[in-house]
């Protein structure tokens, strides 16, 4: 019996002996696979197109071998033919690549095994081939290059085992991070290089590099920098400005980059006129009111985009879902002016045919629908769609939400499709709690923000040990009886021993009921009744008469009304918008205490860049007794700590009896703060952010104590906040300014449960 064969190489020449046998009348009577150990024969045969009963074809055999090589399972493949009765038995001889027993890493510090393993093709029980080695080597290199490691070197070694498998060892030589040495500009005449560098996301290594990685070279960031320069110039009126070319040069030691941008500035243009053409809907006056660009001002790309968006939404509010606004520029090169013409194409008026929601498993559909401002059957409204997105974004138990409006079945309809992704709605925590004020204790809590999928909020918590013994139970229905009216009930007990700061024990228990209703999309009114019984005990006999008169058990029935205006883009870690509120409290209809309280507060978030957010906050408060009754000492004002005045201890700023040094508290307070917030590099996904802050505030208003601007305290410093599973954890380092002799200053503070 005569055998023949040919090797599996692309472009190989079949042996003459095989060519002599493979004559036209030869027929394949059988196809077999030999040499496979781990890869099952049916899986190999699926790639083979030579079949029994077909004529022997050298081209088909050559293609079969290529396909088998392409699987990555084999290091060698060749075919042999054996003449038998009736034709040729075709045998594919394969030599398998080794099976991977284990994968280990060495030298990787910047990217952990946990981050690398899911992205790799090389895994235990898989086949190791040159192809997957190349793919994983390139993947690892790209991952390190994205983080600025341009010296990285990757080696993949296979260590043979006795059973024929291999252990794979991935050795990574990370090198050092490649930083930006200098950024240069060519062609800039109107703006200095220093000014332009401040525009870029990339930055030269300097003193601020310790909290930002912008000095680490990133190709994607550098490409975006060119667009930022172009936008900067066009916002300053340079309509034709552009970055003509960019260049980067890596130093021979691969430790630094030199970046350069070549700029064409052109001329600065002033807007000489604004014109509207096309489908001017709803009216010329209504559209002109939302246009940010004004006659006589320098042209601005940002204002142009804002104008187009506002006009598109305005036209969309008339039911035109596919409105298109196109700007056209008519330049006068002699006067460096430009006429901007907005051509409006409103399209067809459409209605929302259906609202479809998908992605919700636990959350009931009506919980999502009640947040929407665009309803089925209504005429399409762009502003209602936008507001619906904002409201969905504010739901804490929805991690993602996306709204699209594809065309409906009819030409004049669209469907509103919501793709949502549910996040964690509940939490359970238990452990040891530490506070610089209350000491060490045991804390546990169970909370659910989407109870039974109906959006109900429930919470049960306990804090026992140290100087506290607190219990709290609350239930909130944000849509009481299906209406946009919230109702909440709370029962609590607080037993607090804070004699390290004040000279008494304070125990209180009570309940509250609160109802809130929306007045419009952003304004809300609420009214609540709070019934509390408070006991002050342990007041030393040497204390002041003002403090000793407060000792005993008293009941307070307080009616509180509040009005709030909330435009924040989200309730948790907002970056845009604001929250302002006015609160009026009245105690005296029931109970022993008689006083009224007024508080005004506001905070505003301004996104400076994608990285920085400016937060400003202010709070004023006044509490006053009436009918001959004094304000309870535990309701008077003192400042200090996170959320009040950083850099001072709790009760660190207060009205103090000069003889006994008893902390009496004030009846008026004022605080203000400015925070420059930013996500901490490499830790943003874990919920870490930092802030530089400045605080100011004071307390006054007991007996003959009046406001004194010289008594305004201040502080400045740096803080870190972590949104942990048990609540925000905050660390602050602060320096007090203008501290008074009786103030209690604290440079470092640790707080659990309170954010910036």
CATH architecture field of the largest domain: Beta Barrel
Shape: globular
Radius of gyration: 36 Å
Helix content: 10-25%
Write the layout of secondary structure elements.
Layout: E1 3-7, H1 16-21, E2 28-34, H2 41-45, H3 58-70, E3 74-84, E4 87-96, E5 100-106, H4 113-116, H5 130-146, E6 153-160, E7 166-173, E8 179-186, H6 193-197, H7 219-235, E9 242-250, E10 256-264, E11 270-278, H8 284-290, H9 301-316, E12 324-332, E13 337-345, E14 351-358, H10 365-369, H11 382-393, E15 398-404, E16 413-422, E17 426-435, E18 439-451, E19 456-465, E20 468-477, E21 485-497, E22 505-518, E23 523-537, H12 545-548, E24 552-566, E25 577-591, E26 595-607, E27 613-625, E28 668-679, E29 688-700, E30 713-724, E31 727-737, E32 748-752
Parallel strand pairs: 2-4, 5-7, 8-10, 11-13, 14-16
Antiparallel strand pairs: 1-3, 3-4, 6-7, 9-10, 12-13, 15-16, 17-18, 18-19, 19-20, 20-21, 21-22, 22-23, 23-24, 24-25, 25-26, 26-27, 27-28, 28-29, 29-30, 30-31, 31-32
């Amino acid at each position: 019996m005569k055998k023949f064969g040919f090797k599996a190489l692309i472009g190989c020449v079949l042996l003459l002996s095989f060519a002599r046998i493979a004559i036209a009348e030869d027929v394949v009577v059988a196809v077999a696979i030999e040499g496979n150990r781990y890869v099952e024969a049916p899986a190999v045969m699926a790639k083979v197109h030579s079949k029994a009963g077909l004529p022997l074809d050298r081209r088909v055999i050559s293609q079969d071998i290529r396909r088998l090589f392409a699987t990555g399972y084999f290091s060698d493949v060749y075919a042999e033919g054996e003449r038998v009765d009736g034709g040729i038995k075709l045998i594919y001889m394969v030599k398998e690549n080794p099976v991977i027993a284990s994968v280990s890493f060495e030298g990787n510090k910047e990217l952990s095994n946990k981050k690398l393993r899911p992205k790799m093709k090389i895994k235990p029980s898989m086949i190791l081939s040159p192809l997957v080695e190349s793919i994983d080597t390139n993947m690892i290199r790209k991952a390190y290059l994205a983080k600025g490691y341009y010296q990285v070197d990757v080696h993949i070694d296979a260590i043979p085992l006795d059973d024929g498998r291999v252990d794979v060892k991935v050795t990574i030589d990370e090198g050092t991070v490649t930083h930006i040495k200098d950024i240069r500009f060519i062609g800039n005449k109107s703006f200095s290089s220093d000014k332009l560098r401040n525009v870029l996301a990339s930055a030269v290594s300097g003193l601020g590099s310790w909290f930002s990685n912008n000095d680490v070279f990133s190709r994607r960031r550098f490409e975006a920098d060119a667009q930022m320069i172009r936008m900067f110039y066009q916002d300053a009126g340079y309509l034709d400005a552009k970055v003509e070319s960019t260049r980067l040069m890596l130093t021979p030691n691969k430790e630094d980059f030199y970046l350069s941008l070549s700029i064409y500035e052109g001329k600065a243009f002033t807007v000489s006129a604004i014109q509207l053409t096309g489908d001017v809907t709803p009216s010329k006056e209504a559209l002109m009111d939302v246009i940010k660009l004004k006659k006589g001002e320098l042209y601005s790309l940002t204002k142009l985009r804002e104008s187009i968006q506002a006009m598109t939404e305005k036209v969309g509010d008339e039911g035109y879902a596919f409105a298109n606004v196109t700007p056209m520029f008519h330049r006068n090169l002699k006067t460096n002016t430009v006429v901007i013409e907005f051509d409006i194409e409103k399209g067809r008026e459409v209605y929302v045919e259906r609202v479809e929601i998908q992605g919700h498993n636990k959350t009931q559909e009506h919980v999502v629908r009640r947040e929407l401002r665009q309803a089925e059957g209504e005429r399409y409204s762009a502003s209602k769609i936008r507001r619906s997105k904002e409201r969905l974004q504010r739901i804490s138990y929805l991690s993602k939400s996306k709204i699209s409006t594809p065309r409906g079945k009819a030409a004049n309809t669209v469907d509103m499709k919501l793709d949502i992704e549910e996040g964690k709605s509940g939490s359970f925590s238990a452990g040891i709690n530490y506070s610089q004020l209350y000491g060490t204790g045991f804390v546990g809590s169970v909370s659910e923000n989407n109870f039974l999928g109906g959006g109900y909020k429930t919470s049960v918590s306990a804090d026992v040990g140290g100087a506290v013994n607190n219990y709290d139970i609350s239930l909130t229905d944000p849509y009481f009886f299906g209406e946009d009216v919230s109702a909440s009930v709370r029962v609590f007990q607080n037993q607090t021993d804070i004699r390290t700061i004040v000279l008494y024990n304070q125990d209180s228990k009570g309940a509250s009921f609160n109802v809130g209703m929306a007045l419009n999309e952003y304004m809300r009114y609420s009214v609540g009744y709070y019934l509390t019984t408070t006991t002050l005990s342990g007041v030393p006999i040497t204390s002041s008469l003002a403090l000793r008169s407060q000792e005993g058990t008293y009941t307070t029935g307080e009616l509180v009304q509040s009005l709030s205006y909330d435009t924040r883009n989200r309730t948790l870690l907002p970056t845009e918008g604001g929250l302002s509120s006015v609160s009026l409290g009245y105690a005296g209809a029931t109970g022993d205490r008689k006083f009224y309280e007024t508080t005004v507060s506001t905070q505003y978030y301004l996104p400076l860049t994608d990285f920085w957010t400016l937060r400003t906050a202010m709070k004023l408060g006044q509490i006053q007794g009436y009918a001959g009754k004094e304000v309870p000492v535990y309701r008077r004002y003192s400042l200090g700590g996170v959320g009040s005045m950083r850099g001072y201890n709790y009760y660190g700023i207060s009205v103090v009896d000069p003889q006994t040094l008893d902390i009496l508290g004030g009846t008026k307070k004022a605080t203000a703060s400015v925070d420059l917030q930013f996500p901490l590099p490499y830790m943003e996904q874990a919920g870490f952010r930092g802030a530089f802050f400045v605080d100011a505030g004071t307390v006054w208003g007991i007996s003959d104590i009046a406001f004194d601007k010289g008594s305004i305290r201040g502080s400045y410093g740096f803080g870190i906040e972590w949104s942990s599973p048990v609540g925000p954890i905050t660390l602050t380092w602060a320096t007090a300014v203008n501290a008074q002799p009786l103030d209690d200053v604290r440079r470092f503070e640790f707080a659990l449960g309170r954010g910036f």
